[in-house]
């Protein structure tokens, strides 16, 4: 991969360390540090580079030993932002929003909704833990993950009202499902009520 990426004249620059063994829960991996990034190798996932803001966020999150696991795809440009897939999530790098990690049940739901090219758009915040679960902000809504009920999405006017009522820590609690169409409008069920 290093040669394909134009060696020392490419984006990674010169090597600054030797190949290093990284035992992980998913098997042994190797990485090599370069001036501007790393290359990871595993027999099952092949060779992938991490670099730039995504690479820095990945290392800060624990790298191969962190919650994301090993890279299983290369950094890809989508419109005006970049994304890279890892074993257990994705890192997005967007102008004005920096790097954002999407992982776990929120990440699975996000990808099932077509990720950044879907209705929610790209992530604008990190996953935030609240009593009973998590939520994450996207350009056009939020995904909530309840420890008891799994993932639900809020968007539009319902999302705005729910946020104004303190979201899952407010009197409504977590959403119990997604928005449902009703007589030309819509509603969403929450643990302690509905928003129409």
Question: Would you kindly provide a written description of the structure presented here, covering whatever features stand out?
Answer:
This protein has helices spanning 52-60, 104-112, 156-164; strands spanning 20-24, 27-34, 37-42, 46-51, 76-78, 81-86, 89-94, 98-103, 128-130, 133-138, 141-146, 150-154, 180-182, 185-190, 193-195. The strands form 4 sheets. Strands 1-2-3-4 form a 4-stranded antiparallel β-sheet. Strands 5-6-7-8 form a 4-stranded antiparallel β-sheet. The radius of gyration is 19 Å and the shape is elongated. With 196 residues, it is mostly beta strands. The chain contains 3 helices and 15 strands.
Outline of the structure:
With 196 residues, the chain is mainly β.
Which helices and strands occur, and which strands form pairs?
Elements: E1 20-24, E2 27-34, E3 37-42, E4 46-51, H1 52-60, E5 76-78, E6 81-86, E7 89-94, E8 98-103, H2 104-112, E9 128-130, E10 133-138, E11 141-146, E12 150-154, H3 156-164, E13 180-182, E14 185-190, E15 193-195
